[in-house]
Amino acid sequence: MKRCLIVMAWAVLALPASALHAAELPDVKIDAVLQGSGIRTLAGHDGVAAETIWIKGDKTRVDFDAGAGRRGRILRGGDHAWLLMSTSRRALPADHVRIGAITRLDVARPCWDLGFACAAVESRRIAGRPAHGWRYRHAGHAGPGGSDSGVFWIDAEYGLLLAFEAKDSAGQTHRMEATAVGFAKIPDDTFAMPESLRMDVKKADSRADRLRRYAQ
């Protein structure tokens, strides 16, 4: 028994710092600016969007504003993600929406779970936080913002995605940079679905579950 405990202790000590931090991430709110040709304006010019991200445990909320008719919210939690647009009264499945899909990565091996290789570049200080930089190529759509190649920076302590400068496979540019990072307790109702949409989502979840069971 004693030998088993010693082995387990060494196993914990051998874990990278990021793995130990994974359970320690406090509630966090990130304000950011998105830019690039990947965010087209109605006139066809490069666009700009404001983004606010709330993270609490496995729940994420992303509010974005790219101008009239292009404002919305994405709620992610567990196996489900939903998109709520200001122009619609329905919640839409958002599993393939790129905005805010990547919010946190492993500090030591940030590209491991994304499925592509990357190399360390110069660190920066972003929104008052030290951030490590990583360059990547040939990611397909797996990079931040659905990008194929570029550089991203993650918080040195928690692995939070704080900035990226990238291009997608079509050559469109995507840039994001955090302007503020705040750690404070976030109320659970921050991630709640508006009551008017709750029943639609419940029905859609039930349909999806039935389809999964049928497929099995």
Q: How do the strands and helices of this protein lay out in sequence?
A:
Elements lengths: L1 H13 L2 H5 L6 E13 L5 E11 L2 E7 L5 E7 L2 E6 L5 E3 L24 E9 L2 E8 L12 E7 L5 E7 L5 E11 L11 H21 L1
Antiparallel strand pairs: 1-2, 1-11, 2-3, 3-4, 4-5, 5-6, 7-8, 8-9, 9-10, 10-11
Secondary-structure class: alpha+beta
CATH topology: outer membrane lipoprotein receptor (LolB), chain A
Principal-axes shape call: globular
Give the SSE string.
HHEEEEEEEEEEEH
**CATH architecture classification name:** Clam
Strand content: 35-45%
**Estimated helix fraction:** 10-25%
Instruction: List the domain count as a whole number.
Output: 1
User: Measured on Cα atoms, how large is the radius of gyration?
Assistant: 19 Å
Mean of the pLDDT scores? 83
Parts with pLDDT < 50 across at least 5 consecutive residues: 1-23
CATH homologous superfamily name?
Answer: Lipoprotein localisation LolA/LolB/LppX
Strand order of the largest sheet: 6-5-4-3-2-1-11-10-9-8-7
Q: Regarding CATH, which class?
A: Mainly Beta
Please report the number of helical segments: 3
Care to count the β-strands?
A: 11
Query: Alpha-carbon distance between the termini?
Result: 41 Å
Biggest beta sheet attributes: 11 strands, antiparallel
